[in-house]
Amino acid sequence: MKNYLLPILLFIQYISLFSQSDKLWYTAPADFFEEALPIGNGKIGAMVYGKIDTERLSLNDITLWSGEPVNPYHNPEAYKNLPAVRKALFNEDYAAADTLVRKLQGNFSSAYQPLGNLIFEFNHKGPATDYKRILDLSKSQAAVRYIVGNTIFSRIYIASHPDQLIDISLTSKGPDKLNFTILMNSPLKYHSSIEKNQIILQGNAPVRSAPNYLQVRNAVEFIDDRGTRFIGILRINKTDGTIKYTDTSIQVTNARMAELRLSMATSFNGFDKDPFKNGKDEKKIATTILENAAKYSFNDIIGRHEKDYTSLYNRVKFDLGVKANEQDTYTRIRSCTPTNTDLGLIPLYFNYGRYLIISSSRTPFVPMNLQGLWNESIRPPWSSNYTININTEMNYWPVEVCNLSELHQPLLSFISNLSKTGAITAKTYYQADGWVAHHNSDIWAMSNPVGDFGKGSPQWANWPMGGAWLSTHLYEHYRYTLDQTFLKEVYPLLKGAALFCLEYLVPDSKGYLVTAPSTSPENVYITDKGFKASTLYGSTSDLALIREIFNDNIFAANTLNIEASFVDSLQKALLKIYPYQVSKQGHLQEWYHDWDDVEITHRHLSHLIGVFPGNSINLNTPKELEAAKKSLLRRTNNGTGWSISWKISMWARLLDGEKSYDAIQKLLTYYPADNNETKYAGGGTFPNLFDAHPPFQIDGNFGGIAGIAEMLLQSHMDYIQVLPALPKVWKNGTMNGLKARDNITVNISWKNNKLKKAQFLSTTDLVKKIKYNDKTKEVRLPKNIWVSVKF
Ligand code: FUC
Q: Beta strands 691-692 and 684-685: pairing type?
């Protein structure tokens, strides 16, 4: 091939990049995790670095965690301490309560683990030019291309759901051929070997990996015949080159093409089964995957993958009518500041969020963790666990509205596991019926307050509202799908979460029902006497969550026409719950008393749960709505990544599109990959568009896209509202395929900031109120027929 033809060929290949809102692309390989590109099939995945000489894929399987099934009876008499805590609280002795409550603590959670690395050593003859690295969201494919001498080297990476494997294709076009060596390793205990044309990586996860924020000796403990086993099998499926083997590596020389297939599996066999003694046969699983796929060519695998993936991804189309931007993603994100966002990046960010859900949320009983599916560390930040005092819920905020309802299942099914350990925790810690979970959980469905029996701060450890908050997702799934069979099946879980709360409520001195002990997740109060702590009674957020779960129960039971007397007791309790309070300064009070926060811009917004995702504060409660607005203003739109994301939705619910947009700009602020500090303030977005808490935490990505959807469509009231919080700079646009509650698909477009088209497709015959600005229309939506509504 002529020298000058190569760049032209590449240019033609990439010209399509410039007009798209579904491609991330870069002109250099990744040096950091936060620059690498994630692929995943909902269970296994990789971060692709796209290196030229030494390529690296860091590998994950979402079922690989440290630890073993929990013993929920580990602190059987903890409940004996409860009366003393309550007594101290109602004597207003907060110091004593804050100390005593530590007796209600147990083990820490397990940690999500990395599986290993796949390494390629390329033997290139010279430096590379014309480098491109792409993640194509429209077909879920990562690719790397560059020229060495006169040869184009290309690699394609996919993670297929239908075939359960990672498929990698390498090709060379030009005078030089491919020469490379591959090997696999792992940061866990492992060994690798060669069997036939395969590299086999095997090992096991630690039985213990202490949270990264604890300074402890022997933080990670491996025991040979315990813990979850894992395997990765890499097979050279096809090549025209020559293959040679060493003990642990495979060498391919003189090849025009090579196709590699990678399967991964673990022995995880459910939250309550010993993964070693009663584990699954991971080798059989991984081998069977490769055998089943043997009949398919690379093109077949790609075709099957794209068909599966696009059936989910193509449901929604979002466009802000912005002119094509010809710069690479890194340059674009680097130019974003808190007051200057590249508008075209917003649809890309939105599509990326949907891509990340499809890539990491397809494993029953195993929801996306703090890093979704992608983690390289044995002691990842906050154990990359399920932090259910906001983060896990936020991960799942976009799934229903973004028309990915079935991808909610990993979380919804996990709740049933949690309810089982949670019933024992309710008994042993509080002598209560129903079930409870606290701020941390893991693949083993641990439900106790963490803290190693007294060493945890109540600020985060002693928060018994995890079951209630998670269970609101069950009813939300019903509201979106109207699936009564599902509702019937999960009703006992909803009831169990409410029953625990009902028993946990106690009367205060005025006869109101309050929670005790209580916290407002992770915030610290300062009393009128200047005492700073977190333990109190009747925090606003506890009571807001209880309102949500009680109301969900009442609606669910009434829909199913069951449980009349339980409904009655919930209704009676609702009337007695300590009402929302407005402080002297006009804020929605976060604490029972009119106390201030030690940090008024604290990242958590738990007292405002009733605004979003809850619904007890709305246009029908103007006094509380006004106070909530004032509280949100005082918090500011700054914060950690997830905190900023939450504010997008909150402002959207308060119908303030400009404030939502301000938060989006803050969320999309460039955060450099080499400044990955675990500090609390100042989130943003890394070069690979992962959310920066910092460090990387995926909830901000998901909260962010839920917020974008909330700005364009709301359905939490008894009407559907289109364009409720459209910011001025989003002048023209289209958002097709979002879902409103009651299983209604919605297409919206707007021009010059005015609604142009609003169309609705319902799966049942119903009459619905549709709202735009201050106009409301009552519209009949016949089953399965698109209806246009004009305003
Ligand atoms: C809570 C938050 C932190 C972090 C952690 C995973 O503790 O307060 O900011 O998101 O969860």
A: antiparallel
Hey, which of 462, 522, 541 would you mutate to test ligand 1's pocket, going by the most ligand atoms within 8 Å of its Cβ?
Answer: 522
- Of the candidates 750, 211, 237, 709, the one whose C-alpha atom is nearest the C-alpha of residue 439 is 211
The larger pLDDT score, comparing residue 677 to residue 219, is at 219
Contact of 707 with 645, CB cutoff 8 Å: yes
Degrees, nearest 5: CA angle 502-508-509: 155
Q: What does the pLDDT read at residue 463?
A: 98
Atom of ligand 1 nearest to the CA of 699: 10
Length of the chain (residues): 791
d(C-alpha 322, C-alpha 349), whole Å: 14
Question: DSSP string spanning 222-254?
Answer: --TTSS-EEEEEEEEEEESSEEEE-SSEEEEEE
Is the pTM value of this prediction over 0.85?
A: yes
Cα separation of 514 and 573, whole Å?
A: 10
Q: What is the mean pLDDT of residues 534-549?
A: 98
702 lines ligand 1 (CB under 6 A): no
Q: What is the model's pLDDT at position 503?
A: 98
645 lines ligand 1 (CB under 6 A): no
DSSP code at position 407: G
pLDDT tens per residue, range 87-123? 999 999 999 999 999 999 999 999 999 999 999 999 9
- The residue whose CA has the least distance to atom 6 of ligand 1 is 382
| pLDDT of 16 | 52
Average pLDDT estimate for 411-415 = 98
Q: Is 370 in the pocket of ligand 1 (CB under 6 A)?
A: yes
* CA–CA separation, 236 and 243 (whole Å): 9
Specify the ligand 1 atom closest to the Cα of 643: 9
Rounded distance between C-alpha atoms, residue 593 and residue 246, angstroms: 70
pLDDT bracket for residue 603 (50, 70, 90): very high
Give me the amino acid identity at 479: R
CA of 601 relative to ligand 1 center, distance in Å: 15
156 C-alpha to ligand 1 centroid (Å): 36
Q: Identify the pLDDT of residue 7.
A: 56
Could you read off the pLDDT of 750-764 as tens digits, one per residue? 999 999 999 999 999
Find, among 684, 683, 615, the residue nearest to 654 by Cα: 615
Query: Is any atom of ligand 1 closer than 6 Å to the C-beta of 387?
Result: yes
- Please count the other Cβ atoms lying within 10 Å of the Cβ belonging to residue 738: 26
pLDDT for 285 beyond 70: yes
Q: pLDDT (tens digit, 9 = 90+) per residue, 765-786?
A: 999 999 999 999 999 999 999 9
Instruction: Identify the residue whose C-alpha is closest to ligand 1 atom 8.
Output: 522
Q: Yes or no: say if 36 and 688 are a contact pair by the CB < 8 Å rule.
A: yes
382 Cβ below 6 A of ligand 1: yes
Three-class SS of 181-208: EEEEECCCEEEEEEECCEEEEEEECCCE
Q: Is pLDDT of 25 > 80?
A: yes
- Give the position, in ligand 1's atom list, of the atom nearest the Cα of 521: 8
What CA–CA distance (Å, rounded) separates 299 from 282?
Answer: 27
